[in-house]
Inverse folding.
């Protein structure tokens, strides 16, 4: 079974430029998560989708961040414009259904460096 | 809201020695507890989780963790570590309802020395 796929794996951009990250969850997983992981920290949730619906986006900085999951499968996370402080690893995860006990399956992440 | 404290940011240990990675949590409601592991250049993967029942849970590669409600702890242990156990270990908590996010600790980097 293929795992969660993310691309690109690495991205270097200049500040004020836009950037987008793509995630393909495990087949059949209805729930998709985007996390931000700063250096030396654990992942922090940015947004959670149940199928196409964003059910928790309270931690997403909506002035510059946006996300979509149009067909309830793949998802894209965008930053526009990027700031120096956005340098971090962006993780995508998926789980079969919603629920506190569900195991989340993580992709390898996209490492972003903003210069 | 839940929170997780991992008391050690780095733990060096010799191969075949025992190890304990400490995790304490805070929550006003019932929670599920997880340990995730991140090997170099890989994504996080579940190591083990406590849902209910026996307070001692085990993984397939020899790790175990014990849920202690009175001490609000979920420490991870292994009696004899291998070089391949070198990784970052994250403790995480989530309330039963699933309506709040999975909350992670800052992680503990385990370095096994030959």
């Amino acid at each position: 079974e293929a795992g969660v796929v993310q691309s690109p794996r690495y991205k270097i951009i200049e500040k004020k430029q836009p950037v987008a990250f793509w995630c393909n969850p495990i087949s059949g997983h209805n729930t998709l998560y985007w996390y931000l992981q700063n250096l030396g920290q654990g992942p922090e949730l940015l947004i959670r989708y149940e199928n196409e619906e964003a059910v928790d986006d309270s931690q997403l900085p909506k002035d510059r961040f946006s996300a979509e999951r149009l067909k309830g499968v793949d998802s894209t996370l965008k930053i526009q414009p990027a700031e120096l402080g956005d340098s971090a690893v962006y993780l995508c995860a998926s789980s079969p259904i919603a629920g506190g006990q569900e195991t989340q399956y993580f992709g390898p992440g996209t490492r972003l460096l903003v210069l | 809201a839940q929170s997780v404290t991992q008391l050690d940011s780095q733990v060096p240990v010799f191969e075949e020695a025992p190890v304990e990675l400490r995790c304490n949590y805070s929550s006003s409601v019932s929670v599920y507890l997880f340990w995730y592991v991140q090997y170099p250049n890989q994504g996080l993967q579940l190591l083990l989780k406590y849902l209910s029942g026996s307070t001692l849970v085990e993984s397939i590669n020899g790790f175990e963790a014990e849920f202690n409600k009175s001490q609000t702890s979920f420490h991870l242990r292994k009696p004899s570590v291998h070089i391949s156990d070198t990784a970052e270990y994250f403790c995480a908590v989530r309330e039963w309802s699933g309506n709040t996010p999975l909350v992670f600790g800052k992680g503990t980097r385990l370095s096994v020395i030959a």
Observations:
- The mean pLDDT of chain A is 94.
- Chain A touches chain B at residues 3-4, 40-45, 48, 56, 59, 91, 93, 98-109 (CB under 8 Å).
- The domain at 5-114 of chain A is CATH 2.60.40.10 (Immunoglobulin-like).
